[in-house]
Amino acid sequence: MSSKLLNIDWHARARDVAIPRQAFIDGSYVDALSGATFDCISPVDGRVLGAVASCQVEDVDRAVVSARKAFDDGRWSQQSPAARKKVLMRFADLIRSHAEELALLETLDVGKPITHSLRVDIPAAARCIAWYAEAVDKLYDEIAPTGPGALAMITREPIGVVGAIVPWNFPLIMASWKLGPALAAGNSVVLKPSEKSPLTAIRVAALALEAGLPDGVLNVLPGFGDPAGKALALHADVDCIAFTGSTVTGKRMLEYAGQSNMKRVWLECGGKSPNIVMADCPDLDRAASAAASAIFFNQGEMCSAGSRLLVQESIRDELLDKVLAIARKLEPGDPLDPATTLGALVDDLQMRRVLGYIDSGRLEGAVVRTGGAQTRQETGGFYVQPTIFDRVSGNMKIAREEIFGPVLATLTFKDAAEAVRLGNDVIYGLAAAVWTRDITAAHRMARSLRAGMVYVNCYDADDITVPFGGFKQSGSGRDKSLHAFDKYTELKTTWVDLS
Questions:
Q1: Phi/psi of residue 202, each to 5°?
Q2: Residue 298 and residue 57: Cα distance in Å, rounded?
Q3: Which of 28, 172, 320, 436 has a beta carbon 3.0–4.6 Å from 200's, enabling a disulfide?
Q4: Per the confidence metrics, is the pTM higher than 0.85?
Q5: Distance of CA 492 to the CA centre of its chain
Q6: What distances in angstroms separate CA 7 from CA 1, 13, 343, 457, one per listed residue?
Q7: Around Cβ 341, how many Cβ atoms within 10 Å?
């Protein structure tokens, strides 16, 4: 990131930026048919950014009809992989060239630091789209080893109309994780961003059109989960729902599929991930830094956050002191200041939820070692201090339930067996980490931890080439990597009798 970008007056830019307000259906920006809107409120300072179209059931139907027509007539689904690749590469380039605008919209919408939006969110979204564009013309189908009397071909076909429902913590990244493989495979997509973070999704729809994506192939519906998300999940002409969000809502997606057309449902839901530090950890300073980043990056609003720090008894005090020293230097700041590393929570409701969990932890006997309160009230925004609990037991709410905020629960264990038991003793199974210099122990613990991603001597290591998803009630299916194509394609066997 150049010093020029970091020296921009983002407050001045914020005063002038155009706020996207309409739905995007069949290649055009349109109001909701009912004329309904909702206020898009910035967590930076509580101000209303604009009145955004609030899509209803009839808008969902209009978008799905558009997507189905586009899919069935082949304007995108029947283009060659190489042709789709060119369009999606242009789309990724346009995201990059509009990085400052998109980053500003992301920060205003969800309160994350502008530096993170510029350095992480927008580049990652563009890379995701480009990666799937590059991948799609390098995938081969199969011939089954049936013998000389038959030719059995196994081919992948796009699944059809994909309903993508994405959350508010990483709005454009989460959207790109769905759009990249779904569009590359030839599907049409109806994207429903969270009502808390609709702006970048609305804006990039025009960039996709500019890149050459045909009308109707991508539709964006701002609005609330009920009615818009529910109607999309219930729609009989939607072939697949790709959802990222809470476990409670993920279960509803499964119900809606059963009530409608048994559409494919892929879920990336909650997490309560254990970050396990053994006494023989090779580098306590690095482990402490990673532990702080794992819970305080993005204000703790991450499904894969290392929200449970499990420390072996003999090093508990030493490691915890190091993590506390880092946390006490962190203070929520102005998200539009490039020096800020900890921003606002997404809205007042989420702030109240996080503060409620902090109160619960105190009531159940855990000890707040730092933080534990709202801050920056004078701004009108929604800020909570980075908070670390000590003396946490595994049966407390703060050790079992997803908080989705900058709150760390510290637990201790005697040996590896107890660490694994504690690590697995929640309904979630998204991520986990093990810090040890014993490679045999690391492998054994990694195999025993019921999580989709296990990090060894690091936390939240990431690349588009590896799958992202979880076990248990953290969901099903995988985002990222070539495995994501499994969600958006159907396998077809064509058997030719040669006898």
A1: -65, -45
A2: 33
A3: 172
A4: yes
A5: 30
A6: 11, 12, 18, 35
A7: 17
